[in-house]
């Protein structure tokens, strides 16, 4: 397939130019002006559009899609009680499937082609299987964050065996700030045994907890690369330096962190400290699910305390996000990368005219600009419409599932 004549916005480094993108076997084969079209190549006309690598969401509890905007303006304590105490335990495998599938399609619709799915609703192996199956059928590139209150190598190995294709797995420990050191050690042992990257909530609940958690990792030799710390608002400059030296990354959820009172998003401070920081929705219970909103929130806050730019915001949403997801060949259009792309319309009120393509994406766009989305070279959205079978039916099921799990809640 040849994507012809769009304004190609790449991320590493950030640059824009009119060019074609040639895809081959799920990968990007070439990017350049007026590439030759050989026989049998499908041509997709991108004239007037911006062509970008798909966005990477580095932290999302995808299963919560049916709980959208149900608890605005709450505290962390209320959030935890609602999710873990009341509603989460009511999820059956079918609810996990419906929520995760709807959440993944919501991502694709908004141009998010990769999601780190932090799945902490794995009450039984059937719940785990339902989450994995939903990600597979959505056609999204996903890192399934394996999380359980009873970390056990055999069960984790079984979940890993069910991954493949676009779906890989990470260990999602509750971690030293939430569970006992003994359980946390078990979580990391499984990650090491199965050679999984790690995505863990840390540094979001005060500087004392942040210090204690990092110290636990340091004492036990668990600091290292392929480790993404979700939130990190309370990490000091010193903490960020420790993380940078270890090759770790941050997964920042700018809207939810501010809404729940974690503190200012660490995006700008992380950048200054040399820690790659990606963005994530975290939850749609009290925050937005699209990357445009996340970029703007991170950008606005980071402008307060650093020279953070719209280019930095775009990198956080793409190539730095790929680092936080511990995935190669994602978040960039470099030849050899996965053919995960978004084509964005510019002929819309509120978007036109385009003076600076990067600034247009970060400051002026929203999901309605997402015209076409490809994952691994496969089109999942075209002409502004998801190609997934029967989205209307899915949304009805989502509403029914949500009504059941929130009844009298
Ligand atoms: Zn989270």
Task: Walk me through this protein's architecture.
- By secondary structure, the chain is of the alpha/beta class.
- Helices cover 38% and strands 23% of the residues.
- It has 14 helices and 17 strands.
- The protein has helices at 76-87, 93-109, 125-138, 153-161, 181-193, 207-219, 237-246, 254-259, 267-273, 291-305, 310-317, 319-324, 357-364, 391-406; strands at 2-11, 14-24, 27-32, 43-45, 49-53, 55-60, 112-119, 141-146, 167-171, 198-202, 227-231, 249-252, 277-279, 341-345, 370-375, 378-382, 385-386.
- The strands form 3 sheets. Strands 1, 2, 3, 4, 5, 14, 15, 16 and 17 form a 9-stranded mixed β-sheet that branches. The protein has a 4-stranded parallel β-sheet with strand order 6-7-8-9.
- Strand 2 and strand 3 form a beta hairpin.
- Helix 10 crosses helix 11 (310-317).
- The longest helix has 17 residues, at 93-109.
- It is globular, with a radius of gyration of 20 Å.
- 55% of the residues are buried.
- Bound molecules: zinc ion.
- The site of zinc ion (ZN) has 6 residues, from loops.
